[in-house]
Amino acid sequence: MAIGDLKTEQGVKSLDAYLADRSYVEGFQASQADVGVFESLSKPPSAATPHALRWYNHIKSFGDERKKLPGEKKALAAFEAANGTAASAANDEDDDVDLFGSDEEDDAEAAKIREERLKAYAEKKSKKPALIAKSSIVLEVKPWDDETDMKEMESKVRSIEMDGLVWGASKLVPVGYGINKLQIMCVVEDEKVSVDLLVEEIQKYEDYVQSVDIAAFNKI
Fold first, then answer.
1. Which of 10, 35, 121, 183 is the most exposed place for a label (fewest CB within 10 A)?
2. C-alpha distances in angstroms, 149 versus 142, 153, 212, 213?
3. SUPFAM superfamilies under this entry (predicted)?
4. Cα–Cα distance for residue pair 175/2, rounded to 1 Å
5. Spatial contact of 138 and 183, defined as CB atoms under 8 Å apart
6. Same domain, 70 and 10
7. Are residues 41 and 117 in the same domain?
8. pLDDT per residue over 127-140, tens digit each?
9. Which residues make Cβ contacts (< 8 Å) with residue 150, sequence separation at least 6?
10. Cβ contacts of residue 194 below 8 Å, gap of 6+?
11. Is the pLDDT of residue 81 over 90?
């Protein structure tokens, strides 16, 4: 897949497709590879490219810490080439059943062979368990001031229910001047739960919540 110029709408759409099943540009943690692509964007992705927007907001949340991320910046073509090689290898592994056979004459015997191969291929695919893509997310919910009732804030956050959303552990993290932020973990099914929508739902409790940041986002 060629991503192209990230300063164009088509380039961002291609990046969105690239990140559809990835948390990061390369590997399983944020790195300079993400920083390089992040800096190549002329503006934040829009809601029309949700995967790119989710990734952008996550990398943005690192702030000045982005400079300390491991790895090195690379040309985007390097990731595309690696992705293409991996996809090719996966296809080779999965293509051990020839659906169409040879170019022999299309007689009754050839049709029978093709039918048997198609049946074998369908049986092989049916035995593969369906994987449910999930993500583990750590959210940081910030209050307005030190007078905000943090227990009530957490209660409001946990009251949000969505199909495919499971709330996990939480803790209060000091940010200074007697103010704490709520750090809470959740696990979501990617096909069912939009992270952007979840953040919006939390921000609706505007009497308690000043802002919501994504501290960590990892595929499970």
1. 10
2. 12, 6, 16, 19
3. eEF-1beta-like (SSF54984), GST C-terminal domain-like (SSF47616)
4. 42
5. yes
6. yes
7. no
8. 766 678 899 999 99
9. 143, 172, 180, 182
10. 50
11. no
